[in-house]
Amino acid sequence: MTHVCFTLQVDPAKLDEYRAAHAEVWPEMLRALAATGWRDYRLFLRPDGLLVGTLQTDDFAAAQEAMAKTEVNARWQAAMAGFFPTLGEARPDEGMLVLDQVFHLEEQLDRL
Fold it and tell me: Which Gene3D superfamilies does UniProt cross-reference here (predicted)?
């Protein structure tokens, strides 16, 4: 199991709209994420628009690839594009800046 953390920048002028869109994500999008290996997926939003996402998956590249092949993902990415103006022509799921893990408490405790 891999833990993934990524960031994106939401347009600060659209935070309320972004929150509303994620309060009721389309059921078919939720099912597609689960079916393609995205588990315990969470998004956190700072008041300046910094978005931090975390998830668990067996293989992040494979989960992204599988999701990219779904019809619902194409529609969702198009619907979300306006929230991420700094990405230009890139889709939001292509603009994720994946962070390197530098500390994990349980991993270090296990080594003691």
Answer: 3.30.70.100
Q: Residue 16's pLDDT is what?
A: 98
Q: How far are the Cα atoms of 25, 31, 106 from residue 8, in angstroms, in the given order?
A: 18, 23, 27
- Going by pLDDT thresholds of 50, 70 and 90, the confidence category of residue 89 is confident
> How far apart (Å, rounded) are the C-alpha atoms in residues 80 and 8?
12
Told to judge if 22 belongs to the known catalytic residues of this protein, a careful annotator would answer yes
Which one of the listed residues 2, 12, 19, 22 is annotated catalytic?
22
Sequence-distant (6+) residues with CB within 8 A of 22 are 43
